[in-house]
C-alpha cells in the first residue's frame, strides 16, 4: 500500500474519503479574505492621499510626488519594513543559529545579490521579461507561504505523507505559475502586445491565419490543464486517496487559497493595471498570520528586553511593524519634499530600487525552515 499503510487503514481512509463534504471556512481562508479586505482599505487610503496631492496640492509631474501611484506607494512603504523585520526575525531565531543555517543564509544572500546584478545589467524595468519575471518570482514566494499558512493553521485532515505533500505543493506552484504565463500568452497571437518591444513579428502582430492563432493561444492552456489533471491523479494515488476528486475535497482550502493568490494578481492587474497589490496583499497576510500566532502562542515567561518583547508578543510585534511603517513614511516625506529624489535615500525609497529589495527578500526566504 502507498506510504506503508495497512489494507485496513487504507480501506477506512478511503471510506472516509467518500463521505467528505464541503468543510466550513477554515482559519486560513478567513485570514485570506481578511487580508484581501485590509489590502483594499490600505490602497483606498493611499488613493485618497494621492488624489489630494495631485488635484488639491497640484504637485506635478508624477515622479516628484510623495505618492506616485496609490498601490505602488502602499506596497513600497509597507513592504520594506516587512522585509527588514523578516530578516531580523530569521537572523535572531534560535533555529537559525547553527552553522548550517547561517551558511544557508549567507549563500542565499550572495545568490540574491547575483540575481540583483543580473536584473540590473539586463536592463531592470526596461527589460519586460526581467521586470515581469520578478513578479512571477514573487508569486512563487506568495504561493509557498499560502501553503505554509495552510499547514500551520490546519483546517483539513492530518497530512498523510508530508514529503509527498510538499512535492505536490511544489508541483502546484509550478503549474499555477505556468497557467498565468499561458493565460497572458493567449492574448499575444491576437496582436494585443504588438509594438511592445521586443514582442514583434508575425506571431505578435495578429497577421497569422485564424487557425494558427487559436492553436498558439490555447495550446499552452490545454497543456497546463492536462498537467493539472495528471499531477492531481499522481499525488492522490501517492497519498492513498481514492482519486483526484477526493484529494481536491480533502484539501479544498489549500487549493482555494493558492488559487486565490493567483486571483489577487489578476484583480490587481484588472483594477489598477499594475501588479503591486499582490506584494501588498502578501505583507498584510503575513501580518495577520503573525499576530494570530503570537496571540495563540504567548511567551510562557514575560520577555526581558525590548527586542524579545517585540519578537514574541502581539503588542510588541504591532508596535514594531506599525512603528517602522510610520517612520519609513516620515523619512519618505522628508526625502520627497526637502532632500530631493537624487539624494542618498533614493537607494532605500525610490520605486526603481524596490524590486532589488524584493529579489533579495524572496531569495533569502528559501532558507530551510
Outline:
By secondary structure, the protein is mainly α. The protein has 14 helices and no strands. The chain has a domain at 27-126 and 274-369.
Can you offer a commentary on this structure?
- The protein has 369 residues and is mainly α.
- The chain has a domain at 27-126 and 274-369.
- 72% of the residues lie in helices and 0% in strands.
- The protein is built from 14 helices and no strands.
- Helix 2 packs across helix 3 and helix 9 crosses helix 10 (276-296).
- The longest helix has 30 residues, at 27-56.
- It is globular and about 60 Å long.
- The chain starts with 6 loop residues before the first helix and ends in a 5-residue tail after the last helix.
- The relative contact order is 0.16.
Key terms:
single chain, mainly alpha, 369 residues, globular
Poorly predicted residue ranges: 1-23
Shape: globular
What is the number of beta strands?
0
Which sequence of SSEs, written as H and E, runs from N to C?
HHHHHHHHHHHHHH
Major pleated sheet: none
- The mean pLDDT is 87
In DSSP terms (H or I, runs of 4 or more residues), the helix count works out at 14
State Rg.
23 Å
Estimate the helix proportion, in percent. Answer: over 70%
Strand content: under 5%
Structural class: mainly alpha
Gap from first CA to last CA = 30 Å
